[in-house]
Amino acid sequence: MSIPVAYLAVVLIWSTTPLTIAWSSETIDPVLAGWLRMGIAAVLGLGLLGILRIRLPLNFQAQLTYAYASLGVFGAMCCTYIASRYVPSGLISIIFGLAPILSAIFGMGLLNEPALKTYRWIASVLAFLGLGIIFTDDVALGRESLPGVFLLLLAVFLFSLSGVLVKRASAQVHPLAHTVGALLWSLPGFGITWWLMGAAPLVIDPSSRAFWSVLYLAIFGSLVGFVSYFHVLRHLPASTVALVTLITPIFALMLGHLLNAEPLTPRLWQGCLLVVGGLALFFWGHRIPLRRRLK
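Below the sequence we write its predicted structure tokens.
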């Protein structure tokens, strides 16, 4: 796969994922929509493993890695799917943009990584300040949005923690096998949550955008996007890959506004730009002229 094509695929898929999550939950119970997505992706992934003759390790170390990864696949995604009924889809991308910051903080405690430099703490404050501005926007977020906001914060917490725990496990598992293992581990969690929340019946309407959104997320969001991301990560500097987290919130906001009639207010833009600015400082603050003073 061409590296530019893979990079573009990651940007497009990550930008459209929040909106399609919202669409997939319009006529299908959100937890059930997530369950269907992961189930279809798992079946397709198992087929790819067979075709490509890639082994799915089942030893303890591999299973531990799948379990850690499922914190992100089930924990983060289940919260995100439920939250999509309460908050604009663009906000999902903005909040998930904080994942690198939370991952670095978790890394200090769980991976014994070096303490954050001063400029990175400043970047973190800017990003969370931007989030605070967004939360005070009564037009984009009302009182009815509070459950969704808390669920999204929990989602990005679990997503970040999952990535750090997977890194700590250090299991040498092929990325596709890792994905399939995590998907399989996530299925019982989605099923139990669906049952506990009332076991809403499955209504499939092939003419609805919810149906096609589930298929899109299963094929592209859970498989093509993952493979493209790891392909890019293998061939490009981490700083270049990090640009994706700065680009996708802007695209997600625009798509939500144009295709889902979601409000775009000045305060929402201000908060988004602060979050993106904080992320930019977090990734590239070491290059600014005053870096010696901010270390």
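DSSP finds twelve helices and no strands in the chain.
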